[in-house]
Design brief:
By secondary structure, the chain is mainly beta. The protein contains 1 helix and 9 strands; from the N terminus they run αβββββββββ. It has an 8-stranded antiparallel beta barrel with strand order 1-3-4-5-6-7-8-9. β8 and β9 form a beta hairpin.
Length: about 160
């Protein structure tokens, strides 16, 4: 009896670890809370350079929920005085991976359309993403993030 109980428990652990189909139980490393720590820009194919005018975003926090919800919280650094409540309140929307997990596609509440960023690096503790600023010079922006220890920000979208 004892041996059959151990066998059943062992099988249950194996089945649980496998997670059924390939997608069930797998979580993208992007899920969690990320703090922006570096801002860079470039024009065309020039080398990336730190962007002092965007350094004020370097403490923003982005939360990617496992359910596809997204929320950005402005940090305490500011690019000048807030001109509206949207400068100090969170931005909500959705996210999804696309193009073989090489892009993040965002939607934002109250803003029509989809917006994408290229994933340059996505590890367990670092995310680097870049995007076009859509100006006529071909300027691109790039941000580097460090993952926070928790799976959500205390103000976060994941609890809603």
């Amino acid at each position: 009896m004892k041996r059959s109980m151990v066998t059943i428990l062992g099988l249950a652990m194996i089945v649980g670890a496998c997670g059924g189909n390939g997608d069930s139980g797998s979580t993208s490393p992007i899920v969690g809370t990320w703090k922006r720590v570096k801002s860079e820009s470039r024009v065309g194919t020039a080398a990336w350079a730190e962007d002092p005018k965007d350094a004020c975003y370097n403490d923003d926090v982005e939360v990617y929920g496992a359910d596809g919800k997204y929320e950005l919280f402005p940090g305490t650094l500011r690019c000048g005085a807030p001109t509206s409540t949207s400068d100090t309140s969170s931005v909500r929307g959705t996210w999804r991976l696309a193009a073989g997990d090489t892009k993040i596609v965002y939607t934002y509440e109250g803003i029509p359309g989809e917006y994408d960023s290229a994933i340059e690096n996505l590890g367990s503790t670092q995310l680097i993403r870049s995007w076009s600023t859509l100006d006529t010079k071909g300027t691109q922006a790039r941000a580097t993030y460090e993952k926070s220890g928790g799976s959500q920000d205390s103000r976060g979208v994941l609890g809603q």
